Amino acid sequence: MADLLQILILGLALGGVYALMGAGLSLVFGVMRIVNLAHPSLIMMGAYVAYWAFRLYGIDPLVILPVAMIILAATGVILYKLVFEREAKSARYSEMTVLLTFALAMVIEGALGTAFSNTQRVTSPDYATEAFFLGDVFIPKGQLYAGIVSLLIIGALAAFLKFSRFGYAIRATTQNRDAAELLGVNVNYVGLVSFAIGLALAGAAGALVSFVFSFFPSKHWEWIAILMSLVVLGGMGSILGTVLASFILSVVAAFVGFYFGATWSTLTFFVSLFVVLLVRPQGLFGEKPELA
């Protein structure tokens, strides 16, 4: 019984981190229809910000997290203006962004690899290797703190989307871009800000990832399949769905890893992506696509 509880705790703790990693990807798709394959490589940028702040100046990753968010948000504004804004009204915009973001991911990987090599790195504050013990069960402090911070950030995002005036504009644009524009919403500005927020979430996730996982520039290829499985299961564009899918798949992967090995744990995400696309492509909270 203790083993089952231990696996559940570890799965839930990582689920919070996965939820934050996927939330920005889901937000950007919901508002802008951008299938951002570069999202994990941008998370990597946030991880390097936290790593070097800790390595050079001893700044805790949780302290540098807001800085990583600001840096990635600024990067988002630049990328949106240079790459994504021009063709935003195109009927084939989503398809185009798959190729654009794939190329962008390659560029970011190459830049990070050139600057920092492909050496595996991890930020190592004291709590990253410590744990709380409750009888026979332990809770890793690093994963616990990362999970709690992730949920706080996602909660703040949910409150912003639900109660702020700009949040109404974002939700309106997500539901029907053309109707929102007819009602006076500046959808281009909404897209710009949403993209910046999505990348700010990537920066926050990167700061947390830096002490939860080891990372290196090409690690993002493993993460993109994981994040896409979360977003597809939850429903493309649904942040709530992404959060629930993150906890579900993280717990399932933890049990699979315990009983069948770590390799099969990662494979859980790949198999779920394949099955969901076959059985329920709209995911848990997505809208069923209409046939032309």
Detailed description of the structure:
With 292 residues, the protein is mainly α. It has eleven helices and two strands, in the order ααααββααααααα. Strands 1-2 form a two-stranded antiparallel ribbon. β1 (131-134) and β2 form a beta hairpin. The longest helix is centred in the N-terminal third of the chain and has 31 residues, at 2-32. The protein is globular.
Tally of structural domains: 1
> If strands are numbered along the chain, what order do they take across the biggest sheet?
1-2
> Which regions are unreliable across 5 or more consecutive residues at pLDDT < 50?
none
Helical amount among residues, as a percent range?
Answer: over 70%
CATH class: Mainly Alpha
What is the third-level CATH name, the topology? ABC transporter involved in vitamin B12 uptake, BtuC
CATH architecture name? Orthogonal Bundle
Order of helix and strand elements from N to C terminus: HHHHEEHHHHHHH
How far apart are the first and last residues' alpha carbons, in Å?
52 Å
Overall pLDDT, averaged? 91
The amount of beta strand, in percent, is under 5%
Shape: globular
Report the radius of gyration as a whole number of Å. Answer: 19 Å
Q: Count up the helices.
A: 11
Q: Would you report the number of β strands?
A: 2
Question: Biggest sheet, open or closed, and with what strands and sense?
Answer: 2 strands, antiparallel
Which structural class do you get from the secondary structure elements? Answer: mainly alpha
